[in-house]
Predict the structure of CRISPR-associated endonuclease Cas3-HD.
Amino acid sequence: MHLREVAEEAGRLAGRLGLEAVGQIAGLLYDLGKYLDAFQRRLHGGPRMDHAAAGARWARDRLPAPWGGLIAHVVAGHHTGLRDGLLQPDGRLAQAGAAADIAANGGYVCSVRRGAGPAPG
């Protein structure tokens, strides 16, 4: 229920940019890591773990560029904030630097790097 509501709201907000489906997918993936055994142990006093990384990795590894990288960026940053340099001062998407890395689906996307193992836990 919660993920559906988040997906609907994220889709509504992203729809303002013509990206409703992208927002919906991000909304469905943002808490994917809460289904991991490590997160369930966390609920019972276990060590902290990064639950956002699981959904970000899923998007990065399984969705086509540039969408997988962009969704991974949003999902990975849903608690920590988004990486600087994605937008220009006038609000347009930057064409170089961080935006290019993210759109290329290859470089560093928040705490999620290609080839990184499972989230700490």
